[in-house]
Amino acid sequence: MAVPGGTWKRAGLGAIGLVFVIATFAFFLPKIADYRDVWGVVRDLSWPWIVALLAVTALNILTFAPPWIAALPGLRFRDALALTQIATALSIVVPAGAAVGIAGAYGILRRWGFAPREIARAVTLVSLWNQFANLSYPIVAVFLLTATGGDSALLATAAFVGVAILGVAVTALALVLSSPRMAMEIGDLAAGAASWVVGLLRRPPVAWGGPSFDRFRDDAVVLLRRRWHLLTLATLVGTLNVFLVLLVALRACDVPGSEVSVVEAFAAWSLARILGSFPITPGGVGVVELGLTGALIGFGGANAGVVAAVLVYRFLTMAPTVIAGLVATVAIRRRVAPA
Questions:
Q1: Close Cβ partners of 8 (under 8 Å, ≥ 6 residues apart)
Q2: Distance, CA of 318 to CA of 311 (rounded, Å)
Q3: What is the pLDDT, as a whole number, of residue 318?
Q4: Which residues of 151-190 are buried (b: 16+ CB within 10 A; e: fewer)?
Q5: Which residue among 40, 148, 198, 307 sits deepest, i.e. has the most Cβ atoms within 10 Å of its Cβ?
Q6: Whether the predicted model's global pTM rises above the 0.90 cut
């Protein structure tokens, strides 16, 4: 029986990602810092720093829910928290995890009785606002670095690309929301471009188009008029709290401000978020660790302390979510709709 070409492509991409992950943790990171030295740094963590790390980790988990509450009226905090932990856990552990996470969130929300158009609007807005934040952070980081006398060529490049993409994306969103005609025209244009791209991969044209964008406009305009500020604030608080976990991990692992300042840590983190958005490995595993480590050491951080901090940061932003996602999955299976 012949194996579909798409299966071979997915298997090939998965194999490449696996090789990269193994190379990162078995070759690249040990070249940067001996794991015995890294473990020595982690082992010497004081109890106050351990408590601080646990506190920011708990806060990070809690900030997953508010953007969804803002984008989907009627969704309770408890249910939004469970939903986001499941979706994020899927995006971390499953190849092409972002798409699987969205599909999982859609299925759960349908089971809870939310209408498909409401779910599509919420997924789109939460995703867009998250990407807007990711594209904005390198721009802010470059400005802050320049103001404090620092620089980073790679970050400047990311910021330049971010400005271009963010400008196009925000303009397109504004035009889509401005009128039904613009929504139809931009939707048809985007569908044509997307169909051309997937055609290169020998896949059928996309099923959406101008009417899809027009329906999104009808659903989004009213909600954004009332809740755009809440969605924006919730997104900023949620994403910046992830940075707070990194900053506390750096200080806990004895990487002081004299080696890596808050601005430099923010610059490295914003660059790593851009790198992690490329679907090379699930959850950006390997990509984020290597990129973040290189940037922090480039700013002056000690090798063992930086590697320890990055590994602690990644563990605390991934493992608790995976565990919480599994627990939430079991709990959700026991009920049909939110209580």
A1: none
A2: 11
A3: 93
A4: ebebbbebbeebeeebeeeeeebebbbeeeebbbbbbeeb
A5: 307
A6: no
